[in-house]
Amino acid sequence: MKSVIIIGGGIIGLCSAYYLAKEGVTVTIIDKSDMADGCSYGNAGMIVPSHIIPMAQPGVIHQGIKWMFNAKSPFYIKPALSLDLLSWLIQFYKNSNQDHVNKSMVPLRNLSFFSKELYREFAQSANEFGYQEKGLLMLYNSEKMGEEELKTGKVAEELGIEVDFLNQQEVKELEKNIAVNALGAVHYKSDAHLSPNHFIAFLKSELNRMGVKLISNCSLVDFKVSEGKIAELLTNQGNFKADEFVIAAGSWSVEVAKKLGVKLHILPGKGYSFNVENLIVKPTIPTILCEGKVAVTPIGETVRFGGTMEITNNNDTKINIKRLQGIVEKVNQFYPDIKVNLPEKEKVWHGFRPCTPTGLPIIEKSKRIKNLTIATGHAMMGLSLAPASGKLVSELLMGKKTSIDITEFRSC
């Protein structure tokens, strides 16, 4: 029986373990944390086939420079004397063009719809995580932003994504229970959402049932490599052997791969979220407030608000109050009935999204190490793309034809 060790107990690692275990593989997951508060726990919980445009796109550099001088903006690159940052920025700049967008949209769409299909399968067997298909509203309150969103919506429509274009009155009719201060919206009806915390709990329960071993607080020390293959994994909890290895460690994948001489161009993008409970009125449809890039997700009786993308390093755990204020101000601007207050620091979740300079995830067999597969770099779409990524990892390891073409999902 084939044995696999997955390095990383986040949602990509968990989904990879699930589909490998279904193939009868013996799976062990190791993670340096207690696996209780990874990047996906504070995720907005959105499943977004609508997100067909990669982060590297025309105009993003110009907009990013403008945002750099606004303390409350949704995007920030933390300056540092770092060759990794310089290299990432150069590659990001090279990829921020229309040709890159054109060749990325169909692969992203296919990966997203494949993932949604697999989420539906999970929900049909046991919907313990609030999976719902209410779509996604892209709300805007300026003519300029409206033009951009309508243009993107038209492109999505051409690619087979179900889209409605709503004026101010139609937004009010859709969100009847709460005042919405918006000129209009693009409603992506193909999108869905769920409770990230409940889905991860469900996955862990399934993995335990399937005999997958989860080892927490297990720090990788080094690898033993022989004849171009990983022979052994050295950790603070002993040494481990397996036939195949998977790196799915999110932003920490860079450090892990480096020990094998594998270079991954990934930087962490810090984001924040917080929950507000017991609101008298609240939105019912997952929403992005376009001017501030703020995600709004109703999860049961709670509403989760999230946002910002700070390109930084894995040690930067400080919460930037100004950027948090930017989220709160946009929420109150779009939803005048809610009156959200700045949350206390201890109630704010933060996590690091692994960002590639292409804006596309990495899902591939390593060219350098024969028994290594890499699945990382999903940025803010880790939860959205996790089941598809996990399924593709299992297909790669089992030597099967992949369900979708993964040519574009490779490291630089």
Kindly describe this structure.
The chain starts with a strand and ends in a 15-residue tail after the last helix. The strands form four sheets. Strands 4, 5, 6, 7, 14, 15, 16, 17 and 18 form a nine-stranded mixed beta sheet that branches. The chain has a six-stranded mixed beta sheet with strand order 9-2-1-13-20-19. A three-stranded antiparallel beta sheet has the order 10-11-12, with no helix packed on it. The chain has a domain at 51-96 and 132-192 and 266-355: 2-Layer Sandwich (D-Amino Acid Oxidase, Chain A, domain 2). The chain is of the alpha/beta class and 412 residues long. Helix 1 (11-22) runs parallel beside helix 7, helix 1 (11-22) packs parallel to helix 10 and helix 4 crosses helix 10. The chain has ten helices and 20 strands. Helices cover 33% and strands 25% of the residues.
Write the layout of secondary structure elements.
Blueprint lengths: L2 E5 L3 H12 L3 E5 L15 E2 L12 H9 L6 E3 L5 H13 L2 H28 L10 E5 L2 H16 L4 E5 H7 L9 E5 L3 E2 L2 H14 L3 E3 L4 E7 L2 E7 L2 E3 L3 E4 L5 H6 L8 E11 L9 E3 L4 E6 L2 E10 L9 H14 L14 E7 L6 E4 L6 E5 L5 H16 L15
Parallel strand pairs: 1-2, 1-13, 2-9, 4-17, 5-15, 13-20
Antiparallel strand pairs: 3-8, 5-7, 6-7, 10-11, 11-12, 14-17, 14-18, 15-16, 16-17, 19-20
Helix pairs in contact: 1-7, 1-10, 4-10
